[in-house]
Amino acid sequence: MTNVPHTIGSILKISEDWLAVRGVDQPKVDAGTLLAHALHMKRLDLYLQTDRPLVEHELAAFRPLLQRRGKREPVSRILGRKGFWNHDFIVTPEVLSPRADSELLVELSLGLDLNDQANVLDLCTGSGCLAISLAAERPDWKMTGSDLSTAALEVAKNNAQQCIPEQSIQWIQSDGFNHLHRQFDLIVTNPPYVGMSERDRLDPEVADHDPHLALFSGHDGLDLVKRIIAEASQYLTVNGWLLIEHGHTQAETLRKLLTAHGFDAIQTHRDLGQRERVSLGRWPGID
């Protein structure tokens, strides 16, 4: 950027072009989001004030944000927050940044015919976005969130305090089901499902900034998924449901695993990009 006076509109165009050259997916959206943050404005308001001149201290607040995005750091990590369902969630290096595709887990969970006071587990909770979103929609559900990472659980607790301070979620540090000693009517999980074999093909936003503990699970990405499906029946009530987010090429394998371990009513649902993203099955209570 030069020292020549700029307007909001000119900076948006320069920034969009600069990000596009660096391979950023949505350069216009990201430039607007970061500029709005630097100016303490709503993004929509930028486009209502495109002729407004920018002074040097405003540009100085914006430049480092833009530079970080140009290095392919995700916007959510630059801002430390990400919108999901109906709340903004704190995002730190210890947790995955919530993704819009994962809202399918919330939508499908809310569509199940569960008891008004159902016991629900969010396994591998990370930021807590699933547990908190479900608790906000179904305040009478008895919600538990678990994660292997104690640092992630601290983020989840902070998010719960911010988003639903009047409600209570039980947070448990656990490697899979190891420290869970009850049964649930619904287990929902977005576990690590990326294979180490895929690492070199990932976008820098993912490979360089998402916590690998929450991202990778063995060579093909299925190590933890297989374990969850094999053990889930011990932690489900009769006719309880298991919902799992997975990679878009893993759906057939998930359906076969669910069938092999005795689940019925097995389905797979597609995400916003029409990719097979969430599979679910019901435990009939037969060993």
How would you characterize the overall build of this protein?
The protein has 287 residues and is of the alpha/beta class. It folds into two domains: 6-71; 79-283, Rossmann fold (3-Layer(aba) Sandwich). 37% of the residues lie in helices and 20% in strands. It is built from eleven helices and eleven strands. It has helices at 8-21, 27-39, 43-46, 56-70, 75-79, 103-110, 129-137, 150-163, 204-207, 223-231, 251-260, and strands spanning 6-7, 53-54, 81-84, 87-90, 119-123, 142-147, 170-173, 184-189, 236-245, 264-270, 276-283. The strands form three sheets. The chain has a seven-stranded mixed beta sheet, with helices on both faces. A two-stranded antiparallel sheet has the order 1-2. A two-stranded antiparallel ribbon has the order 3-4. α8 (150-163) links the parallel β6 (142-147) and β7. α2 packs antiparallel against α4 and α6 (103-110) runs parallel beside α7.
Write the topology of this structure:
Layout: E1 6-7, H1 8-21, H2 27-39, H3 43-46, E2 53-54, H4 56-70, H5 75-79, E3 81-84, E4 87-90, H6 103-110, E5 119-123, H7 129-137, E6 142-147, H8 150-163, E7 170-173, E8 184-189, H9 204-207, H10 223-231, E9 236-245, H11 251-260, E10 264-270, E11 276-283
Parallel strand pairs: 5-6, 5-8, 6-7, 8-9
Antiparallel strand pairs: 1-2, 3-4, 9-11, 10-11
